Predict the structure.
Amino acid sequence: MSRARDLYDRLVAGGEPEILSFIDQRITEELFLEYKQSADSGQGRTLHDNDRKNLAKAISGFGNSEGGVIIWGVKCRNDPVKGDVPEKAVPLADSVKFKSLLEQATTGLTVPPHTRVQHHPIPSGFVVSLIPEGLHPPYQTVPELSYYIRSGSNFARAPHGVLAGLFGRKPQPSIETHWFSTDSPELVERGAVKTQLSIVLRNFGRGLASHVFCNVSIKSHPGRNCHIEFKPSPEQEVWSGRLVLNQTLQMMMRSGFALAPEQDAMPVSFDIVLRNPLERDFFIEGICGCAEGETHRFHFRSELLDMVKATDQMFRTPLDAVETPSLLRKFNPLFYKQIHR
């Protein structure tokens, strides 16, 4: 895992207390960390021009280097001894809205677009942005038409020699996830609905991916009468795997097989049968990657209230009811809300 990803995951998991601890401890800006105060606290209908310029520079600089993280909602000052240190929190008016403004702007701020940028809102007025090392460097800012790299705690315009090196970088693979569910869940018996969730991996990078792997675990089971079954890929000549403690499946692509750019592979599916009582969220998480690239973490959660809404009428409907098809069509947008967004 990269330093930038590790820092991002730490901030997302820790939320406001973690960010405030960075401020209290005066953790300085460095190669992988940048603090930013929004020019208008995120109150505009669109992203403020100053915020757009700062985001564009960061996407170019971090994307052309080894990646990095921005914490939005923090005022920074220069200390002659320590360097750029956080001074105080300046919370955003609405972190969810500001995250949306960042997402709307991101792909139009560089050429080529950096497609791996992520933004996560912290409810108390912060947003954490992850800008990984880019797969298609160099990234040029728009409309300034400049190239940046990260140098210490600053973004510096990249000289010609550095750009020449970037163009010569060996193409890297990048294994990430797609989620697919079956089109129509099945009412298998009165009070029981069956559906399937499949994990599809794709090589989004430019290099060949070998030793592709996927580990996935059930972290929260929906209920005592529900049944969740791992279904490993039937392509046994391609995949090897093992089940650990009946809750984690570890799959590895066999030697001699690889994923070319834009190719897909499906290592595992889940057969899911839901019955009352539904008691908890259904939550799975995992990690995937390959020998030559970074790892990618993923998760899927169907919240308890959404599951109850998705299944309530179906559980009370006779198997031969004429309205059953319409009920089935309403199931996926609720149960797979995270996927259908």
